[in-house]
Write a structure and sequence with these properties.
Blueprint: H1 2-15, H2 26-70, H3 80-88, H4 118-140, H5 147-168, H6 185-203, E1 219-220, H7 226-235, H8 251-262, E2 278-279, H9 282-288
Antiparallel strand pairs: 1-2
Helix pairs in contact: 1-5, 6-8, 7-8
This protein binds heme C.
Length: about 300
């Protein structure tokens, strides 16, 4: 089964175009179809057993009628099921127990030498057969993968999917060397929500600064252009409370929140923290094309 799923997976990643809808994942479709077949099978079984019951009842009535007409006494035939139950629990009947009674007598307690219940005995044989099949399939012929092999299959599959996903992302991935400030309202709204939920606890809701520096003035410890801000947010400042948000926020989200910070500039909120760092002159930074790297 695993092997089958793996083969299906391998086929599917070749067809797969990464998308947001779960229905585009062929595995979801596969499990849905299998689930549907399973439910249909159960329903068919239920209906069939019901019809069988009806049929049994009708034959029973017919045979009672036939016996009545012949004037003989009607005896119920044991059902297949009751025959099976009797066979699987068979043991020496009570009347014949004397024949299997052992000679020992432990202070009045005697022991019967009954045989094992057939259901138990056959189950035991079945486990032996299963053990043989398992040994052959997993260890002798390598038809099915062992845990390690299965794990490696999964990992290589995930690698292939990741490559596919990366290839499908159009344009270069955003980082501190190529990030551009965005003015897209949706992106800025996203930046604002990130800022409110994460950053405001240290930089204050209005950006005036608390544990972290004032983000509304023109003084910056690590540079005030978009790329420097992106770098600080993404990589953090070692040894300070400003951690590397790049591990928990996507490049887009960092771009968005960094861009949002620009809208706080020059807002002069009351009781803001006093300026820290150097006066940042936007033009100069642009002219030199310098991207200040973060020095811890
Ligand atoms: C736990 C507190 C804390 C949180 C949360 C925090 N920061 Fe900071 N941040 C700091 C501290 C402290 C510094 C100063 C680091 C230093 O001394 O260089 C800093 C520095 C900065 C700087 C550089 C300021 C400068 O002067 O160069 C930026 C930009 C910044 N944070 C943005 C953010 C953003 C965006 C978030 C949310 C994703 C955030 N911070 C979340 C504490 C925090």
């Amino acid at each position: 089964m695993n092997q089958l799923v793996f083969i299906l997976n391998t086929i599917s990643i070749n067809l797969q175009i990464p998308s947001t809808s779960i229905w585009d994942d062929p595995m979801v479709l596969f499990y849905t179809v299998v689930g549907f077949i399973f439910i249909s099978a159960v329903l068919i079984l239920v209906v069939a057993s019901f019809l069988l019951q009806v049929l049994r009842q009708l034959t029973k009535e017919a045979s009672i009628e036939a016996a009545r007409q012949k004037g003989v006494e009607w005896k119920e035939e044991p059902s297949l099921w009751s025959k099976l139950m009797e066979w699987s629990n068979r043991s020496v009947p009570l009347e014949k127990e004397e024949t299997v009674m052992l000679d020992h007598n432990y202070d009045g307690i005697r022991e019967l030498d009954n045989f094992l219940p057939p259901w138990w005995k056959w189950l035991f044989y079945a486990t032996i057969i299963w053990g043989g099949v398992y040994l052959a399939a997993y260890h002798l012929t390598d038809t099915l993968p062992l845990q390690t092999a299965e794990y490696e299959q999964e990992v290589s599959l995930a690698d292939a999917q990741q490559k596919l996903l990366k290839a499908s992302i159009t344009g270069p991935v955003i980082d501190e060397t190529n990030v551009e400030q965005t003015s897209d309202p949706v992106a800025l709204a996203d930046g604002k929500s990130t800022y409110t939920s994460i950053c405001s606890s240290c930089h204050r809701m209005d950006g005036g600064g608390d544990i972290g520096p004032n983000l509304t003035d023109d003084y910056w410890k690590h540079g005030g252009d978009i790329r420097s801000v992106y770098a600080v947010v993404s990589k953090g400042v070692t040894g300070t409370n400003m951690i590397a948000w790049g591990t928990s926020l996507s490049p887009e989200k960092i771009r968005n929140v960094s861009s949002y910070l620009f809208s706080l500039r020059g807002t002069n909120p009351p009781n803001a923290k006093k300026p820290e760092g150097e006066l940042f002159k936007p033009q100069a930074a642009q002219d030199s094309g310098a991207v200040k790297t973060v020095v811890p």
